[in-house]
Every structure is written in structure tokens, then in C-alpha cells.
Design brief:
Layout: E1 5-9, H1 13-24, E2 28-32, H2 58-71, E3 75-77, E4 81-84, E5 89-92, E6 95-98, E7 101-104, E8 108-110, E9 125-126, H3 129-132, E10 140-144, H4 148-158, E11 163-167, H5 177-184, E12 189-192, E13 195-201, E14 208-213, E15 217-222, E16 225-228, E17 232-234, E18 275-277, H6 289-309
Parallel strand pairs: 1-2, 1-7, 2-3, 7-18, 9-16, 10-11, 10-16, 11-12
Antiparallel strand pairs: 4-5, 5-6, 8-17, 13-14, 14-15
Helix pairs in contact: 1-2, 1-6, 4-5
Bound molecules: NADPH dihydro-nicotinamide-adenine-dinucleotide phosphate.
The site of NADPH dihydro-nicotinamide-adenine-dinucleotide phosphate (NDP) has 18 residues, from helix 4.
Length: 310
Amino acid sequence: MNKHKIAIIGSGPAGYSAAIYTSRAEIETTIYAGKEPGGQLTKTTEIENYPGGLGLTGPELMVKMGEQASKFGAITKWEEVEKISSQFSVLSSQGEEKYDGIIIATGASPRLMGVGEEKYYGKGFSTCAVCDAAFYKGKTVYVVGGGDAAIEDTMALTKFASQVTLLVRRDELRASKAMQKKVLDNPEVKIMWETELVGIKGDERVEKLELRIKNQELREVKAEGLFFAIGHIPATKWLEGSGVELDKKGYIKNGVVGGVSWAKGYPTMTAIPGVVAAGDCVDYRYRQAVTAAGMGVMAALDMEKWLESK
Ligand code: NDP
């Protein structure tokens, strides 16, 4: 059959879930896996919050998703996309290909600080408390940030950790007033104002944090967990000038997030009809593997319907 041919850009949960649906619908599907195949889950260890994923590690889950997409005929190109056009051409390091539709699922990366944190991923350091809080039962943990996500992460951790301290670089929080209320007078949460994280110590796992308080005093504290909630960077820079509209933080606007339904009946459609988008490159709010996968499926179904209408 293969009446139609589409490109999926990105190989995280959103991209692979979309690919499973489009390839099973007998749409010829090419996945551009990008420079971090598997996306953010490849940086985690155990998975406890992906339905059916218990007992798997993040990398194992992503390999399974990729295999499932391949089983139904999706082709994976281990290439990074440089550009797309409104005529559905995809330019990668290996050349240019034309498609009938494009699904963008390039994800986002948590903002990091460059204080040696990457070495401790899954060993006391995490960028997703909603995912990992349950691993910190009875432990002393620190959260860096001051926005809504930092408050949400802090609250998620209070259910498990014995002590949660929020490290805020300024003397005020950026979070909304309603969110601030949850931590400001909460005896379970300690806040250290005007405090910067400058270093991490520990042989195998996070053991100590080096803090600079009010720009001068250096202090070392014992820590068993460290969470960053200092924002995310959507992987969308390559879309600038393509016609796909981005919000001021670089997230893709589609009908689901962004408040505008560009094409009636196609919630995941971007500003270019025939280009849909899903997952963390669109969604700054939920950012879970399972929500990304769900949105990937929505994008695949929207794409199928749009192609049928042509
Ligand atoms: P934000 O950009 O809103 O906040 C980032 C926070 O991290 C700021 O307080 C910032 O400090 C701090 N920060 C940034 N870089 C550093 C650094 N190097 N060292 C220390 N601190 C740093 O990001 P969020 O992820 O919190 O939120 C993103 C979006 O998602 C927002 O629109 C938010 O409202 C929304 N959201 C809503 C939720 C809800 O309503 N329940 C839950 C989660 C997110 P500073 O203030 O000094 O710049």
C-alpha cells in the first residue's frame, strides 16, 4: 500500500509512539533519530512510572520502543535534521528527502549548571522529581530553582524525603503566588535564599554539595539527593525561519499547547498544515515520558486523518 510517506523527527517516547501508530496504519514512516537517540529517558536508570515499564531501565525502554516501531516497518535514519520546509522537505546531514507530512518530536533538555552534575545522573542527581522522588525515601535532598517546577518538585519530594531544602539564587521566588504559598510557610521545607550551588562531591553517588551563600560564604552540606528544576530548553532552534511558530521560550505552538487551533480538528497541527508536533518540544507543563508518548499518538492520528483528507 504505502500511499503516503512521512518523516518523524525525534526518537524519544513521542517520536517512537507516533511511529508505531503511523507504520501500523501502513504509512511509510522514516524516523530521524537525531544526535541523542532515545531522548531524555536514556539518561535515567530504573523506570517506575511508565505503565508496563516496571523492571526496565530508561535505555531498555527506549530500545523496546524503537524495536516496536521497526517491527511495523518504520525505518530509522541515525541522522540529525538541519531544516524542514513548508513543502515537506527534510534536510539532514545526509541530504534532502521529500515527504507528504512531518511529525516533529525533538523534545527538550533540562537546563544544567555545569558543576559536575552529569556524572551523578541516576546516582543522586535527577532533573525530574516527579519521576524519581520515590527513590529518596528518608533521605536528605536539595532542589535548585525558584519557579513553578521547583515548587512542584519540592512538594513531590516532601512525600518521601526526610529533609527537603530549596536553593534559591535570588531573594525571591519566580513561581506564581499560589505555588509560593505551598512552600513559604511549610515546616517540611527549608529555603536557603541567595544561595548558589557551586560544586558536588561524592565517589559513587552525591554525598556533599558546595554552596555559596549571599555571594561570599562557602558552605559544604551533606546531601543524598540533588534535583535541578531550573527550566528546560526545547530542541527547536533548528526550526527558526521554517514557518513553524514558536513561543517566546522556543516551544512549538500547536493546537494543544499554545492556545491556538491552527487547523480545526487537528489539535497537534503547527502553523504549517501537514506539520504536527508532539512531546516536550511542545509541552512545558507535564514533561513525562507517558504524556509525550500520548501526544505522539495524537500527532500520528492527526497526521493520518490529514493525509486521508488530501
Ligand atoms: P522557570 O523559567 O519559570 O523558572 C526557572 C527557575 O530556575 C527560576 O527561578 C530561575 O531563577 C532558576 N534558575 C535558572 N537558572 C538557574 C541557575 N543557573 N541557578 C539557580 N537557579 C536558576 O522554569 P520552570 O521549569 O519552573 O517552569 C517553566 C514553565 O512551566 C513556567 O511557565 C511555569 O509556570 C510552568 N509550570 C507550571 C506548573 C504549575 O502551574 N503547576 C508546574 C511546572 C511548570 P530566577 O528566578 O532567578 O531567574
